[in-house]
Amino acid sequence: METSADGLRTLWISLLVLALTAVLQAGVVVLSNSVALLGDTVHDAADALTAVPLAIAFLLGRRAATRSFTYGYGRAEDLAGVAVVATVAASAVLAAVTAVDRLLHPQQVGHVWAVAAAAVVGCLGNEWVARYRIRTGRRIGSAALVADGVHARADGLTSLAVLLGAGGSALGWQVADPLVGLVITVVMLAVLCSSVREVGRRLMDGVEPALVDAAERGLRGVDGVRAVGALRMRWVGHALRAEAEVAVDGSLTVAEGHRVAEAAEQALKRAVPRLVAATVHVDAEEPAGPEEEARAVAAESAAVRAALR
Q1: Model pLDDT, residue 109
Q2: Is 2 in contact with 276 (CB distance < 8 Å)?
Q3: Nearest one of 152, 156, 175 to 165, comparing CA atoms
Q4: Domain named Cation efflux protein cytoplasmic: which ranges (predicted)?
Q5: β-strand partners of 246
Q6: pTM to 2 decimals?
């Protein structure tokens, strides 16, 4: 509930900032007829609207698990990430079509200084939103919110590109504005590829390898754990769940084995941020027989003799 509230607050505040930025830029677009600024405005508006599916996902994630959705509704956040990707793709197509049309039918850009000022405002607004979303997304473990923040940062860079178009227009180079519009489209496509990778990994139950390494180290440090077997982890919304197999001494009683499993579960939660639940399966390791013990002693003696030589 607390992490969802943080996500919702971030979304609504960033939505307000981006909406104000887009409205300001749209007014300058009407005055100047700048296709580069139009592409940037469309991108800002699309970025603001992506807050809606993310907010719905955070609200759904608060619902308790049911007999049909036994893991809860956290995966709605990953579906919202798909909506973010689709929005970026649609805005890239619109920006590209508009820029190509302007290349084929050049028009003079007016109020160049207003275009430059709107570009600076767009850059500052998007960078502030990007930092806010990325910081919150990393804190609560939301890949969709981080992807949306990266999207906003790319918007800020494209706003700077609009300055180049304004400069070219001021010098009388009419194709500068639509060329910058095409550059903005390329940046959008780069952001799209990055977001597809991140959201796709979550949908395929992928996790960062560093999280798996941290989980294994935590399990190996538990008293009574002799070996770590299969370890599976996945994100459900912005929370992690894990399943692990550990080997213990076969001479332990059921109660003792259960205590080792509980200690292993707590160790996992301490080692891995955002891990909310872990299932630990205990496998009993058969005690070594007389022959195995004799072979182990002989091998140890041979190693000592080799070291003395």
Answers
A1: 62
A2: no
A3: 175
A4: 212-284
A5: 228, 282
A6: 0.62
Give the separation between CA 119 and CA 167, rounded to whole angstroms.
Answer: 12
Residue 283's beta-bridge partner residues?
247
What's the rounded Cα separation, in Å, for the pair 159 and 180?
Answer: 10
Token pair for 197: 């990778």
Structural domains of the chain ordered from first start? 2-203 (1.20.1510.10), 209-308 (3.30.70.1350)
Residue 254 structure tokens? 């059921």
Q: What is the pLDDT of residues 165-190, one digit of tens each?
A: 666 666 667 676 667 777 777 877 87
Distance from the first to the final alpha carbon of the chain: 65
Phi-psi group of 286: left, alpha or beta (phi > 0 → left; psi -120 to 50 → alpha; rest → beta): beta
Positions of the chain with pLDDT under 70: 1-4, 35-36, 43, 102, 105-111, 143-144, 157-158, 160-161, 163-172, 174, 176-178, 286-309
